[in-house]
Structure formats: structure tokens, C-alpha cells
Amino acid sequence: MTPSTAATSTARGAHGALKPLSLLCLLTLLAALCFLSVAIGTREVSWEEIFAALNGQVNTVGEAAVAMRIPRTLLAVIAGAALGLAGAIMQGVTRNPLADPGILGVNLGATLAVVIGLAWFGMSLASAYVWTAIIGAGVTAVFVYLIGSLGRGGATPLKLALAGAATSIALSCFTLAVVLPRNDIAGGVRSWQIGGVGGATFDTLNLVLPFLLAGFAISLLSARKLNTLALGDELAAGLGEKVALARATAGIGAILLCGATTAACGPIGFVGLVVPHLCRLLVGVDHRWLLPFSAVFGASLLLLADVAGRILARPSEIEVGVVTAFIGAPFFIWIVRRQRVRDL
């Protein structure tokens, strides 16, 4: 082995050793944010009340306030992880740096399906919300992919982004048209459409958790297939990969994550766009590392946005969907300016 080869091998080994350490640091940050989330709110609480509430006591108003923040914190963690992971999956499946559950219209498809269920079919069962949102997300994802596949060149990243943007605008208009004549549901729907985790309960968590766990499992098991798809369809097929099946499997995982999260929190945007890009700066493009990093980073980002929303507007709150929009919109503009059209 030459000295240059040995140096390269040593550098790669050192870089590889940094990935587990970076993941551990992210998990430590997430744990600290979880503690901040149960400690900070519109009502100030003492350390004694925090620890008492964490031990299951609700004898005072402060302890009851902390107890209400616990399911909110857990929902923010799993929702952020789901959105970050779904964004990484969608960017890998479409090979599009602008892919995101919000930009491709998947979240809005789930939103429209839930609104139609409420307004036209009198949907009341909590489990029906989740199934309806997942179906809406799935139909929208397939529709956007089919539209983006039309014409010469197939489903190019630019065509998918344009198809998703156009579909998002249309779905927003349809949702507004369904809600406007229904004053009985308009207030609740508009509040839910902002996107937030403030109304979380353990019942909500128990309802969406099976769908999210299935989505996490399918998505994380798709890492190797996404690495192969990144080489291009022809080369992936030459290596024995069933391209259509690989895309469909990974897509199902992302749809489960987006649909269940939208049903529980409303359409929260930009987390799936911002997080995978930041994680690539840490771990590169290997999806075996990118996917778990995106999940942990997404959980940390959404939890941080929720805590910031409580601090910035005291004694009121800013919904987490508004905070993520303030973070994500400038980031989206930066990506568009950084990427040349032919590279999208």
C-alpha cells in the first residue's frame, strides 16, 4: 500500500468513525430539547413541579401544565422524525433536491381528503382521519408522479417540482372551496391547517403510532435501494434492482409517514426539505446514514420550532407550522438560487 493510499484509507476511517459520534450528539441534543419542551410554556413552573409531573403527579396547576406538555413533546418528536425521513425518501426516490411532502403536494392531498371526509361524509371516528389522510397522500403522490412523467425524458426532477407546485395550488383552492360554505367546521379546519402539536394527547399518539412505525420500518429498510437508484435507473436495473418496485416500496413508507403526521398535526411544511440537505452536509449521500440522521434531525428541528413558538409570543403561542415556514422559506429560495435549472 502506497503512502497516499494509506492516508486516504485512514481519512475515510476517521470520517466513518465521526458518523456514530455525530448521531450520538444529535440524540443528546434531542434529549435536551425534550426536557426544554416539558419545562417551557405559557405558564412558568418550578423544577419540583417538572420532576413531579414526570413521575406522574398532577397535584398542582403547574404539574398539570407539565403533564399536558409531555404528549405534545412526544408528538413533536415523532412528527418531526417522520417529516424529515419522508423528505429524505422523496428526494431519493425522485432524485430531486426540491422534493418535500409540502412542495410535492402530498401533505395538501392528505389535507383535502380529510376536509372532504369532514364536510361531505360527516367523518367523526379518529381512526378514519388517519386512513383518509393516508389515502389522500397516496393518491396525490401517484398523481404528481404520473403528471411529472409525461412527455420527453420521463419524470425529471424539474418536471416533478413543477407538477407538485401546480398540484399544491389546485389542492389549496379545492380545500378552500370545500370549507367556505361550511361555517360549522371552518374554524376547526383553519386552525388545523396551520399545522401544530399543541392539542396532542396520548390517545392521538396511540392512534397514529402504528402507521408511523410501519412507515419508519419501510423507509429505513429502503436505504440500500435508494443508494442503488441514485446511480440512475439504467445502472440500477443492470445491477439487478427492480427500479419500479424499489421506488414504490420507498414511496409507500413516505406516504404512511406523511399521511399519519398530517392527520395528527395538520400540514407542516419545509421540515422535509430543510433537514435532508443539512444532514447531507454531515454524512454525505449514503442513505444508510442519511435516513436515520434525517429522522433525528427532523425531530430536533420540529421540537426546537415548537419551543421557540412558545417563547416568542408569550403569553400566547405561535403554531409550529408558522415557525417552520419562517425557517424553510428562505432555505427554499437559497436552494433554488444555488441549483442551476439543468442540474435540478
UniProtKB/TrEMBL annotation:
Membrane spanning residue stretches: 21-40, 70-90, 102-122, 128-148, 160-180, 200-223, 244-269, 289-308, 320-337
Q: Name one GO biological process term.
A: siderophore-iron import into cell
Q: Does the keyword Transmembrane helix apply?
A: yes
| Topology in the lipid bilayer | Multi-pass membrane protein
The subcellular location is: Cell membrane
A Gene Ontology cellular component where this protein is annotated is: plasma membrane
Query: What's a Pfam family in this record?
Result: FecCD
Any one Gene Ontology MF annotation carried by this entry is: transmembrane transporter activity
Q: Which UniProt keywords apply?
A: Cell membrane, Membrane, Transmembrane, Transmembrane helix, Transport
UniProt lists the family membership as follows: Belongs to the binding-protein-dependent transport system permease family. FecCD subfamily.
Q: Does the keyword Transport apply?
A: yes
Q: What is this protein's name?
A: Iron complex transport system permease protein
**Protein origin, superkingdom:** Bacteria
